[in-house]
Amino acid sequence: MLNMKNDLFLNSVGDLISATSVNNEHTILIVDDEINNIQLLKRTFRGKYRIMTASNGLEGLETLKRNIDDICLIVSDHKMPIMEGTKFLEEANKIAPDVIKILLTGFSDIEIITDAVNKCNLFQYVLKPFNPDELQEAVKNGLDKFDLASSKSLILKDLKELFYKTIKSIASALDAKDPYTHGHSMRVTLYSIILARELGVPNSELEMVETAGLLHDIGKIAIPTSILCKPGKLDDEEFAIMKSHPVNSEKLIASIKKLHDISPGVKHHHERWDGRGYPDHLAGEGIPYSARIIALADTYDAMTSTRSYRKALAHEVAIEEISKCAGTQFDPVLAQKFVEIEDIIRAAKDNPEEYYAKYSTLYSQIN
C-alpha cells in the first residue's frame, strides 16, 4: 500500500501496479446460469485469483453487496434468466462503479454492446465461445486498471491527509503564541462545521468552511505578542494593528491555489451584519456566507474561553448575547439557528474530539 507517512515512494506506474498486486489478492465475481460455464471459468482463473460465483443476476447483486470491499472485477454472461447480463451489470454499476466489468456474449449485436458500454461502465466484452488466453488478458488488463485507480485514490487520500495535517499544524502554531487562545482555531472550526451542517450547507462547500475556520486567524502570526497577549484594553494604535489580521490572513493564503476559495471567509469573518465591522465594512448578504458562519463560531468561542483580560463566560450567557446581537452583529437567520442548536454546541464544547470526528469533512476523508 502506498503510504506517504512511511516515506514510501514508488517510481513508476508499473511499480505502483506491481506493489498493489503483490499486497492484495484480487477477487473476481463470475455470474453465469450454466454450471459448465462457471466450472470452465473457474479453471481458467484457478490459482490466480480468489473466485466467487453466482448463478443469476439477483444472486450476483447480493454477492456484490456482501463483498463490496473485496470484489475487484465481474465477469458476467449476457443471456441469463431472471436478469440479463447487461441489466445485471447496470445495477452492479450503481452499487460499485469502480469495479471492473466484463461481459461474455454470444451475440455481436451492436445495440447490446452499445447498451452495455453506456449503461454499465463496461470495460470489455468478450465473444463466446471465448479463447481462455484472450479472456485472461482482458481480466489482467481490467485488474491493472482497477489497481491503478485504487492507487490514485490512496495517493489522493495521503495528499489530503498531508494537507489537513499541515493546516492543523499552522493553526496550532498560531494558537501557541497566546496560551489563552490555545485550541481556539480548532474550536472555531468545530462550531463552524456544526452550524454549517445543521444549516444544510452542501457537502461541496463544507470543506471550504472547515479550512477557512482553521486558518481564519492565520494573519495574527504577524501581530506582536505584546499586543496579542496584552492583559488590558488595547489603545487605538494597538487595536488598528490587531484589526489588520484578516487582511494579513488573506495575503498569506493568496499564493496557495488550493486556498483561493476560502479567502472570502478568512478575510471577512470580522464584518458585521449592520456594516460596522472590518476590514471592508460589508453589510448583510454582502458578507460571504462562510464568513458569517465563522463570525458566530469565533464570537462564541471568544466569550466562552478565558482570556488574559477576563474569565470565560458561561455557555448560557454567550448564547443570550448571540441572540441579542442577531440582526446587528450577526446574520439573524444564522444566529437563530446557532441558538436553536445550542445543546449540540454545548456538547461539542465539552467533548471537542468526539464531535470534530463526527462533523469534520477533512477528517472523514482521511480516516
Question: Which characteristics define this entry?
Answer:
367 residues; alpha/beta; Rossmann fold; Hypothetical protein af1432; 2 domains; 5-stranded parallel β-sheet; elongated; disordered N terminus
Summarize the structure.
By secondary structure, the chain is α/β, with parallel strands linked by helices. The chain has helices spanning 13-23, 35-45, 57-66, 85-95, 110-120, 132-175, 184-198, 203-215, 225-228, 236-242, 245-253, 263-267, 289-304, 315-324, 332-340, 342-350, 352-359, 361-365; strands spanning 27-31, 50-54, 71-77, 100-105, 124-127. The relative contact order is 0.08.
Topology:
Blueprint: H1 13-23, E1 27-31, H2 35-45, E2 50-54, H3 57-66, E3 71-77, H4 85-95, E4 100-105, H5 110-120, E5 124-127, H6 132-175, H7 184-198, H8 203-215, H9 225-228, H10 236-242, H11 245-253, H12 263-267, H13 289-304, H14 315-324, H15 332-340, H16 342-350, H17 352-359, H18 361-365
Parallel strand pairs: 1-2, 1-3, 3-4, 4-5
Helix pairs in contact: 1-6, 3-4, 4-5, 7-8, 7-13, 7-16, 7-17, 8-13, 13-14, 14-15, 16-17
Textual characterization of the structure:
With 367 residues, this protein is an alpha/beta fold. It has a 5-stranded parallel β-sheet with strand order 2-1-3-4-5, with helices on both faces. The chain folds into 2 domains: 4-153, Response regulator (Rossmann fold); 176-365, Hypothetical protein af1432 (Orthogonal Bundle), CATH 1.10.3210.10. The chain is 57% helix and 7% strand. Helix 4 (85-95) runs parallel beside helix 5 (110-120).
